[in-house]
Amino acid sequence: MKSNSMRSPRKYDLENSNQKEKHWYQIMTITVVSLVPLTNGLQLAWTSPFLVKITQDKENYDITENETSYFTSIQPAAMLLTSIILFNLSDLLGRKTTMLVIAVPQVLAWVLAALATDVYLFYAMKVCAGIAVGMGFASVPMYIGEISSPSVRGTWGCLFSSGAYLGQFLINLVGNLCSVKVTSYIFVTVPILFFFFLIFLPESPYFLVMKGKHDEARAALKVFTRKVDVEAELSILRTDVERQISETGTWMDLFRIESNRKALVAAVFLAVSQSFGGLTAFIVYVQFFFDKAGGYISAELSATFYMGLSFVLNLLVILFVIDRMERKKCYIVSMMPCSIVLMLMAIYLYIDEFETHIDVSFLNWVPLAGMIIFQIFASFGMAIIPTLMLGELFSASVKTKATTVVMICFGISVTLADYLFYVLYRVSGIYAPILLFGCCNAISTILSFFLIPETRGKSLEEIQQALKGAMIKN
């Protein structure tokens, strides 16, 4: 979804010999703003290496396992509240200014983690991290969608998820080698660098046109397209934005107008199905899971390998798959195998834990192998499509309101999924949450056929026109 300023190839001839020269600045900009999900990934997966470390380190911390169990729910809860309270921030301050503000809670979170000696400072750290996640989802995908052309957005827009995966890998790698304090000092540099680089990037021309700042929008378009004459782009952008904001854009319009309702249902479904697909729970509990599931390889090494593989697979999908397959097809191809893998893992874990008369010691490789296969298929859709389409689906008139609703649903579902993982493990065994996620993926596979529209290769305006039609076609 691009700002209509970044025309689709059907409207403007972007596919010429100078295409790379025109697109490199968009790619660089997306890379810079992807430092936000990088830090979010670091702070989300922070529990993986440190959950066990903190409870075992009685010299520096006197914290119980029950107290640390709240680490995984505080961050999404804070994200949820942030989405409700600051839902209109990116429209009031602008996409760029909102992203600049994100650096504050991200830096504060690392400072609190470095200074923490009791559980309450760690709780405060996770609150700050959750605030940053809420603000990040409300601004970064929106900004990426508005400054990039369809061809750039389809491939490079997925750097948002790549940044998160890289953060999850790095925190497991560094966290297993360093203390909480040293790790915090290392990674506090990321949001600081992000703040510095972002200062020099333009605001979204889409937002500038919304605010009537046409001269600034023209200047931003020149930077993003690397063209001297952008009058045609600006004219199209103004027409599209003015049409979209001419809609009343009330909260009721979000549910009453069919195109808005279709987009909202799709975005909420993607967010909730991702949460209950197990992706987030495995991120925050990955080392805990490998520790409880057992295997030939240590939990620390298994977690680091899993997160590293997740990042590599995500990059491969971005480079070779995502813009060659329809969004819906990617998601279905992702969810169905993930369901099968998790159900098979649940059967093994149940037998290993409760059917002790059956010798399955020769299958100790199953937890790691199963998680690897799960991640391979998750990379095709579950891991990237929800965030990518969040920046594509909504009209300018309801974009911030719709994003707020999606983030509220995402925050609730993530909090519930993470909490259920721990509760089901304590009540029934490690197999139980795995079985739950497998069943949820099976249901999501079926619903995907009916709820996900196609947005690949379309401009923001083309997506809106498609949503208004009787059927959404590629």
SSE topology:
Blueprint: H1 19-33, H2 35-44, H3 47-56, H4 65-68, H5 71-85, H6 89-92, H7 95-115, H8 119-147, H9 150-156, H10 159-177, H11 180-187, H12 189-198, H13 205-210, H14 214-225, H15 231-246, H16 251-256, H17 258-275, H18 279-293, H19 299-320, H20 327-354, H21 366-378, H22 385-390, H23 399-428, H24 431-451, H25 460-468
Helix pairs in contact: 2-7, 2-8, 2-10, 3-18, 5-8, 5-23, 7-8, 7-11, 7-12, 8-23, 10-19, 14-15, 17-23, 17-24, 17-25, 18-19, 18-23, 19-21, 20-21, 20-24, 23-24
Strand content: under 5%
| CATH fold assignment | Growth Hormone, Chain: A
Using the coordinates above, name the CATH class. Answer: Mainly Alpha
State the CATH architecture. Answer: Up-down Bundle
The main pleated sheet reads as: none
**Spatial separation of the terminal alpha carbons:** 13 Å
Tell me the series of helices and strands, N- to C-terminal.
HHHHHHHHHHHHHHHHHHHHHHHHH
Low-confidence stretches: 1-21, 470-474
CATH superfamily: MFS general substrate transporter like domains
Helix/strand structural class: mainly alpha
Quote the average pLDDT.
82
Work out the radius of gyration. 22 Å
Structurally, how many domains make up the residues? 1
Percent helix range: over 70%
